[in-house]
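Example for tutorial group B:
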């Protein structure tokens, strides 16, 4: 027999290590941090301006579709105030009904734009019936066309070295622009045609929001003219967003040029 041989026994030690887990305190703070970020966004100016722009757009579209272009619209959150001189005694109530039924597109589908709508209207003063003017002759038409061109030139000269200033991302006109609005409204008094107020924006942000904001700003200027005595029927507002740039949107200077209000005239 062979001599007894030593047997070697190998042993291995297995060490079980638990995965690194964040302490309970940190795990509890992460959802809280996400909630804080969400609340900051919800109550921040960007979300507020986005909501107000959509509400303004929805109510504006509904009123114009129902032939209530005489109405002025003010929006705070989802609260809407309608004002203006009502052409007939029941026009204000009809406009309120339209505004309350206006719907806006949301992530959950169309919903009512405003949670509260109220009106502050004035009654139109009765004026004696005036006979209709005779049809314009070729000479009169040429004279109106010349006056329209003159009006556009006056508006362009007033805006050559000045501009209507708004709050960032908002349709609220800054008080510094009041003297310019006074001058523009004075020029509008001498225009025998319908004045079209065009709002334009740069290309920063979603295109649909730029269009909504540009229209809201044009409407704000229209309201400022009405407050200065220009009849609502002689004013129209349009928003073109970033569709018609006049500057390079890749530079700050070009974007500033594109954020503008322009005045055009519509011949009868």
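The residue assignment follows.
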């Amino acid at each position: 027999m062979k001599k007894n041989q030593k047997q070697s026994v190998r042993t291995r030690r297995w060490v079980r290590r638990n995965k690194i887990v964040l302490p309970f305190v940190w795990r509890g703070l992460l959802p809280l941090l996400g909630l804080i970020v969400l609340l900051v966004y919800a109550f921040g100016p960007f979300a507020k301006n986005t909501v107000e722009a959509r509400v303004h757009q929805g109510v504006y579209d509904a009123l114009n579709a129902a032939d209530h272009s005489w109405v002025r619209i003010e929006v705070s959150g989802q609260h809407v105030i309608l004002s203006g001189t009502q052409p007939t005694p029941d026009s204000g109530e009809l406009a309120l009904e339209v505004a309350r039924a206006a719907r806006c597109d949301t992530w959950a589908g169309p919903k009512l734009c405003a949670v509260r709508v109220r009106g502050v209207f004035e009654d139109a003063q009765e004026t004696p019936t005036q006979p209709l003017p005779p049809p314009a002759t070729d000479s009169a038409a040429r004279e109106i066309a010349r006056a329209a061109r003159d009006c556009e030139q006056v508006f362009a000269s007033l805006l050559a070295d000045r501009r209507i200033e708004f709050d960032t991302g908002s349709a609220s006109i800054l008080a510094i622009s009041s003297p310019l609005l006074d001058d523009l409204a004075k020029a509008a008094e001498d225009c025998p045609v319908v004045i079209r107020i065009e709002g334009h924006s740069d290309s920063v942000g979603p295109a649909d929001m730029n269009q909504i904001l540009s229209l809201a700003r044009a409407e704000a200027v229209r309201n400022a003219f009405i407050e200065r005595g220009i009849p609502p029927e002689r004013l129209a507002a349009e928003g073109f967003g970033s569709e018609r740039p006049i500057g390079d949107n890749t530079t700050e200077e070009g974007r500033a040029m594109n954020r503008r209000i322009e005045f055009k005239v519509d011949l009868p």
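The beta strands are 72-76, 79-86, 103-104, 111-112, 116-123, 194-200, 235-239, 260-266. Compare this with the pattern of hydrophobic and polar residues in the output above.
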